[in-house]
Amino acid sequence: MPYVDGFVLAVPKDKIEAYKALATTACAIWMEHGALDYVECIGDDVPYGELTSFPRAVMAKEDEVVVFSWIVYRDRESRDAVNKKVMADPRLKMEGMPFDGKRMIYGGFTTLLRASDIAA
Q1: Local structure of 46: helix, strand or coil
Q2: 17, 30, 31, 85 — which has fewest CB within 10 A?
Q3: What is the mean pLDDT of residues 13-42?
Q4: Pick from 23, 24, 39, 15: nearest CA to 99
Q5: Domain count of the chain?
Q6: What is the mean pLDDT of residues 93-100?
Q7: What CATH number does residue 87 fall under?
Q8: Mean pLDDT, to the nearest integer, of 60-78?
């Protein structure tokens, strides 16, 4: 089953284009080093919940939008190998990230279920 790294972060609305440029570069790097898929999504229907929500989780401010993204790998071993190459890649050594990395949530996940794996 595939392995997935997931991310949730807040990006200032006036830095979305800078974030998109960074994500485009990151996507190319991850895919070049062996990721199977790379997806970046901008929050469109992401209400601020009373107790929990995506905006609360990343302490999103009024002038920020929530980004939800994931990277898919063949398995955990592949993910570890790909990420080792990615972290050593000089193209990712950038100054001035367009978001606050301290508020980013991330983690690795083993796939539990996929529609494509369910027999009809």
Answers
A1: coil
A2: 17
A3: 97
A4: 15
A5: 1
A6: 86
A7: 3.30.70.100
A8: 98
